[in-house]
Amino acid sequence: MTSLEPTSPSLGWIGVGRMGSAMATRLVDAGHDVTLWNRTRAKTDDLARRGAHVVDTVAEVASAEVVFIMVATPGDLEDVTTGPNGLLSGTDRPSVIVSCSTVDAVTSDRVRRAAGAVGVAFLASPISGNPHVVAEGGASFVASGPRSTYDRVAPLLDTIAKTSVWVGEGEEALLVKICHNLYLGLLVQSLAEVTTLVEKSGVSRRAFLDFLNSTGLATAWVQKRTPDLLALDWTPTFTTELMRKDFDIGLAAARSAEVPMPLAASVLQLLQAAIGRGHRDDDFLSMFAVQAASSGMDLQPE
């Protein structure tokens, strides 16, 4: 196992989907030496043109000092870490694994323990922000794991995002990120309901959002997504299916902690309805289309 140098460690990156690509790009563009692996190699082409080194196997990433992982599901995380061909399976292993994936705490803890057993430090560090926000440097990390591990990689986190916040020694970051996404889902459903009400009652969608965005209830997120709501553009930044996954995780955590979450439980069913109506791979903002359809409206782009 290599030791992490305080200046410019060699970096590995696993998973360059929409988010992973935007995040890795910030490291590559900042001049870092990054070795990439992705299940679909074609998705690495842009990063390769920017100077990243693309490899064919996860094992070839394991010799990097710090390896970031940005994959979609708990199963994917385990596959690339503790799986038979994962980061921890060979004699070359990184010093630190930084898991940026939003997974359940049980899976993260299992991977953390497996990494620790072979001397690899592990940081759970999910990110808030869509690919556009990441590209602009406006995203935020929440991180948990040993404070010393966080301090070692914080400069790298701050290269990708505008800020990072350490919240504990274990898997606390995952619950924080899940609660963030629960709140975002509740926000979007609330926005969908009130926007549908005013539009069906004769007020233009644009006028209502112009007003809302000028009040004390304005949020930067709604302001940024207003053009998409007006155009009915559901190009995915975060899909309805991924949001449903996070609601499943969040409500399971709530059951474990004996915390009632009636609003979140209702939104989970509405996410399910959106998927059933064909919006599985659309941006979860498409919940507005489902709300409008349930209200008998035929939406038109503005």
Strand content: 5-15%
> How many strands, which pairing sense, and closed or not: the largest β-sheet?
6 strands, parallel
SSE order: EHEHEEHEHEEHEHEHHHHHH
CATH second-level architecture of the largest domain = 3-Layer(aba) Sandwich
Word description of this protein:
Strand 4, helix 3 and strand 5 (96-99) form a beta-alpha-beta unit. Helix content is 50%, strand content 12%. The chain has a six-stranded parallel β-sheet with strand order 3-2-1-4-5-6, with helices on both faces. The chain has a three-stranded mixed β-sheet with strand order 7-8-9. It has two domains: 11-170, NAD(P)-binding Rossmann-like Domain (Rossmann fold); 175-294, N-(1-d-carboxylethyl)-l-norvaline Dehydrogenase, domain 2 (Orthogonal Bundle), CATH 1.10.1040. It is built from twelve helices and nine strands. It is globular and about 65 Å long. Helix 3 packs parallel to helix 4 (105-117), helix 7 crosses helix 10 (240-257) and helix 10 (240-257) runs antiparallel to helix 11 (262-279). It has 302 residues and is an alpha/beta fold.
Sequence-ordered SSE layout with sheet pairings:
Blueprint: E1 11-14, H1 18-29, E2 34-37, H2 45-50, E3 53-54, E4 66-69, H3 74-81, E5 96-99, H4 105-117, E6 121-124, E7 127-128, H5 131-135, E8 140-144, H6 147-160, E9 163-168, H7 172-200, H8 205-212, H9 220-231, H10 240-257, H11 262-279, H12 287-294
Parallel strand pairs: 1-2, 1-4, 2-3, 4-5, 5-6, 8-9
Antiparallel strand pairs: 7-8
